[in-house]
Amino acid sequence: xxxxxxxxxxxxxxxxxxxxxxxxxxxxxxxxxxxxxxxxxxxxxxxxxxxxxxxxxxxxxxxxxxxxxxxxxxxxxxxxxxxxxxxxxxxxxxxxxxxxxxxxxxxxxxxxxxxxxxxxxxxxxxxxxxxxxxxxxxxxxxxxxxxxxxxxxxx
Length: 155
Fold this sequence. Notes:
By secondary structure, the protein is of the alpha+beta class. It contains one helix and seven strands. The chain has a single domain (9-148), classed as minor pseudopilin epsh domain (minor pseudopilin epsh fold). The strands form two sheets. The protein has a four-stranded antiparallel β-sheet with strand order 3-2-1-5, covered by helices on one side. The chain has a three-stranded antiparallel β-sheet with strand order 4-6-7, with helices on one face. The longest helix has 52 residues, at 9-60. The chain starts with 8 loop residues before the first helix and ends in a 7-residue tail after the last strand.
């Protein structure tokens, strides 16, 4: 009698069960890593936008305002002396569930204003430095903080 090559049904069931257990153990960790990377990316984008606004204020010798808009968007307004302000809008968010909050700034509290020297002019003197908190709902790594000093240094 010739023996057939291949796997039995029982061997296949055991293999699928083992793969299911391993996937069940690894999946929450992978989801947490992805959420952490999205939070890091949102922080990097926000820091880069703030640094670009500061450099634009210095380079053009004018005041620039970085405004946090609802829905994970931001806008940068450059004020020309004797001319109309120029505004451009950009996205910060990389996925849903990420929120942004500015604290330590005087009115308007949703904006960071840089003067022509790159210093912040609307920092609340009682609560320096200002900070941008980036929060994620439903993740083990729930927030990142960006520190913004009066001299415009962003960390």
